[in-house]
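User: Can you help me understand a structure? I only have the sequence.
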Amino acid sequence: MVKITNCQNELVNRIEFKFHLIQEMIDNIGSMDAQLRDELIYTTLSHWIPGNFPTANELEQLLPVVLDNNHLLFKLGETNIDSVFTRSFSMLVIPLLFMRHKESPFLSREQIHQIKEKVFYNVQNEQDYRGYDEEKGWAHAIAHAADALDDLAQFSELDKNDLLIILDLLYEKMTITDRIYSYAEDERMVNSVISVLNRKVLSQTYVEQWIQSFGDVEINPEFLPAFKQKNNIKNFLKSLYFRIKFYKVDADLCPIIEHTLYKVEKVYYS
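Assistant: Let's start by predicting it. Here is the structure, written out as tokens:
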């Protein structure tokens, strides 16, 4: 009996240590050591959280931490500053939580909406558009945000207005003039669009008008910002076009995308 009790105590201690370790990893998720941040911390979390550890109660303890001002919202609005790594990799934890929830539901409707509001706020205000930094590794805040938006769009808890906001956020981030996305951000964003379309909540007319709006974007008067913006729009439209054809979803949108692309880049499509 004593031996069994000792084994139980040892197991409890190991579980408590493991959860403490997860808390430590969350606290250091924005480490400037790229190998620690990406290959060790995130990779470990990507195995543990979708699995049977930690418990639902422990995940609920982690959730407000991931979403707080020291993680997902850490120094939001800064550009080309190291704070982006904390925000970006905190965002990556959210799809892991959703993955676990889909297998074994633990999030309440209120918690899903809390996550939604924090993610929306982050995406709307994120200004650091770096993909891969040669010295510091992956920043990729926009791509990671796209992953969270993709998962959110699939939840029935999100209504029509939420899906409209997701499309608005995608539009804002795909029409930036600061930088040309070059690390598959367009493909990650398209994932979110496909998830919105698959919900079958928005009207065909609205989606068509949303696509056409990329051809009506206000052009920056300066050449280089306008050039960057045009390339971001073209890459996004092309990715959306071929993804729709690949999945054979809402094929009627393809001609709309074609005409919008022609309007954006008249030099090559006229």
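Now, to help you interpret it: The longest strand covers residues 132-133. Residues 81 and 137 are 13 Å apart (CA to CA). Let me know which part you'd like to focus on.
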